[in-house]
Amino acid sequence: MRAIGLVVLLVASSAMATPVAESFNEELGIHQFIEEIETPKDFEKNLNKPMMPRSEIDLTEVEVLFDQLVNLGKKMWALVENNKPVVNVSYMYANALPKGVRSSEELDNFSDLQHVSYRVYGQNLYGMNVYDLTYSLVHRYGGSYQGRGKFLDSVAVVPSHLEVLWGYNVNYNVEKVSVVNTGTRENPVGAILLETNFKVSTVIKSSESHSVYDFRGDNAKVTAVQH
User: Fold this and answer.
1) Looking at the predicted structure, is the pLDDT value of residue 96 above 60?
2) Is the pLDDT of residue 218 over 90?
3) pTM (2 decimals)?
4) DSSP assignment of 34-103, as one string?
5) Closest of 216, 224, 15, 226 to residue 96, by C-alpha
6) 18, 46, 163 from 15: Cα distances, Å
7) What's 189's DSSP letter?
8) Model confidence band, residue 7 (pLDDT cutoffs 50, 70, 90)
9) Residue 160 has what pLDDT?
10) CA distances (Å), 16 to each of 35, 116, 117, 118, in order?
């Protein structure tokens, strides 16, 4: 298996800079293109994540450790399975919260949902689109607990459209979520490294590419590396 190349992008949720990246997959003979696009108007219909009302949160007193961050969401999940986007993302998200809290609803001052969308598509040597996927990176940042810290919630990759040429198979997964504190013990800044795997295959060949998305609790930007 061969990786599809190495591309570094800076993703800004507020600006449409429209970066475009191109690479070549020798194993499958596919040119891959990545471009920033306008976020689909209906993508939020898949983001109805049930939130635990404050009145239902267990208020039993526990110690909250500001300098130790945890992910109360998912550690891995499927985005596309056998050419079909997984659209029920109610619980398919990650967060970076201080250890000891039971829900992100115990925090205040989270931003509105940030989002930036991409189209990734591959063309064979005849110029035909082999696959064409639209996905959005979403998150909320800046959450604080009792006035301290900058934390993350609702970190996810949301697929919204996929077309695949007959004879090819696409799978796309979040395969790892890492949570770190990029601030100090007194004023933590949560960060999430979210790793994805994009696999394209035929009956005789396959190729995988991996991406790492870096979300931070103190700003709306996401750094992305495809390789």
Assistant:
1) yes
2) yes
3) 0.82
4) EEEEPPPTTGGGG-------GGGS-------EEEEEE--S-S-EEEEETTEE----SS--EEEEEETBS-
5) 216
6) 9, 23, 27
7) B
8) very low
9) 85
10) 11, 8, 10, 11
